[in-house]
What we know:
By secondary structure, the chain is an alpha/beta fold. The protein has helices spanning about 1-15, 20-55, 65-75, 95-115, 130-145, 160, 175-185, 205-210, 220-235, 235-240, 260-265, 320-330, 345-355, 370-375, 410-415, 420-435, 450-460; strands at about 145-150, 200, 245-250, 270, 290, 310-315, 335-340, 355-360, 380-385, 400-405. α14 links the parallel β8 (about 355-360) and β9. The radius of gyration is 28 Å and the shape is globular. One of its GO terms (cellular component) is Golgi membrane.
Amino acid sequence: MGKQSSSLVYQIFQHRFPATFKGFFYFLPISLALTTLLLIFIYISTTAKVTKTLSQTTLYLQTVPSLINNIDQTSNLPILPFEDNEDDNDNLFADPSRTARLSRASQWLLGNIFGLIDGNDTNNKEAYHDGDIFLQDYKQMNKSLKIYVYPHSKDDPFANVLLPPVTDCKGNYASELMFKKALMESHFVTKDPNEAHLFYMPFSISSMRSDPRIDVHGIPDFVQNYISNITLKYPFWNRTGGADHFYVACHSIGKIAFEKAFVARLNVIQLVCSSTYFPSSYLPHKDASMPQVWPRGGDPPNLLTSQRKRLAFFAGAVNSPVRIALLNVWENDTEIFAHFGRLNTPYSEQFLGSKFCIHVKGFEVNTARVADALFYGCVPIILANHYDLPFSDILNWKSFSVVVHHIDIPVLKKILQGISNEEFAMLQSNALRVRKHFQWHTPPIDFDAFHMSMYELWKRRSVVRVRLATSMEFI
Length: 475
């Protein structure tokens, strides 16, 4: 037995195998290599065919110059130099019949490639991704989260930019100021930086924008100087490079605030209304989205008395190719009311009289229309690609809204008509459940827009805090 084993080992080391055995080991790697090359060739051919088909069927509604001219003529709004232009992935289709076919085909392709289509997505009926985990973590946040706010005197020449507003907040960008006002009166603020999870830089983008001493183009300089000042006066920034600092901006101009503080932009947490994946300044896992809300007093209307006879509603300025596309297709439709300009009747009547309310990207994705729709019990339609929807890591948007790609504008009515009464009832029911998260209150109440925004900050805090040598308090 010992001799046989030794002989086998000797043969292995001397490569003394039968001829058929040697042939098998000779052709095996070659066969594997050829098979791999064949699979790669098939993959490239298939991908090229799909790409070629989609590219051949892409039709622009209008050329880029004519779009810009149309925008200028209809809205009298300037094309600002700092606005981002979307890439060719957002080309819009013009032919409804071809678009319907391509839309279904593209959804099938993407769904099967990435495993998104399973036919049994029952979770879409739930308003929250995981309500139990959210409630448990929310309670911990409400109990533990501490924010250190950089202090500023009332005598500061830029007190209007740095201090919370004294009067009631109004207008389209009120969320930014209402957050600051609510935070300064809340139990989250601490004067001991050793307790702080995060540090708040309280400058207001909307206030800087309207201050003639700063103006739009002076915002980056103001922010750069602000960071330099707190770096020299306080030790907090240098411990983390600003990674535990945050600021709040609701106006879309906030995306240029850190143009002259590039390193700071990479670290600082942005809590913004204009939250889109398209510009490089917004990083979803570091930054957070908050809703843009037009302040309203009182309770939401009694929805039981509203008769929703219209299928869908939109009203607004013509200030983007997407809105032009919506106008070209649905301006004269009897079921989808697409109106451009101001309404002669109260907006509330249209919100209460429509089943779906359309949010269409303008110059930027941010708008108060989503919160308006939820306030009036109208199911939102999201027509804004690259939009990081507010509280999307908490709320299941598919359960109370309809998210539609730009290219599906020509088949929008078919999409909405395909939603059964039972499905609409589920969407509207969940919309009423989550609308409390899209409202501001004075003083704030649990689960409103302020507390949900604080929860987003809580999720982005660092688990490791660097303590100072001694407790410090600044006035």
